[in-house]
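As a point of orientation, let us examine one representative protein, giving the amino acid sequence and backbone structure tokens.
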Amino acid sequence: MHQEQKERKKREMEYQHFSHKHFLIPHHFNDDVDQEIKCKACNRLIIATEPSHGCLSCKHFLHDQCLNLPRWLQHPSHHSHTLTLLPAPTYPCGSYSCNACGIPGGSSFSFSCAQCEFDLHTNCATLPSTVLIDAHSHELTLTFDNFPSDGNISIVCDVCNELVNKSFWMYKCVGCGFDCHLNCVKTDQQAGLNPMQQETQEAGGQSRANDTMDSIRQATSQMIEDQFEIMRMQNELTRARILANFMTWSWR
């Protein structure tokens, strides 16, 4: 009976995440760990004080807050379509460029719109809409469209005094004309959580499964894999359509 209870408790602690074929178990790293372990979702280091889940044999680890990211997201920067959480880029090049911060070569999780080829790092997608920083007395607002009426006017970050690329997001105080790079706003890893994530993170502390849930987990995992394959095919179809249109115009 004791062994049976032990096995049941182990299964209740396991978590079947769509990004990995094996069950993930709760894990806490010690301060004396020599190897730096990064979260597969956000690509940030997992430190000893942060709860995480992982597959030891595959070295696949996720922060608990990343483990509980929503699968779909309605983001104010992209009203046209719902963004889907992808565990890896679906582009032929094997990477993506974030439409929020502009950093290329993304290989971690992303919130993506295949139809528009719109991609966001999970950290960027969950940035708070407003922040307070020491460099300014007022609240700064996250803005997505940063082109002034006079397109020739340059925008300079009032924190680092470097130019801001107007194609990407920034924080600003409109009343004072104070502008700030995303990277110049220092927030901790919890700051980007939206209410949906906070609810799912709290729920993550409870028991996630029992014996009767095994079949549901497997079915859900298969369904998500199928959705991921559909996203990849949609990307290929979109590119083929663009290429066909380009060739049609070339012959005119």
User: Anything to note?
Assistant: The first strand starts at residue 25 and ends at 27.
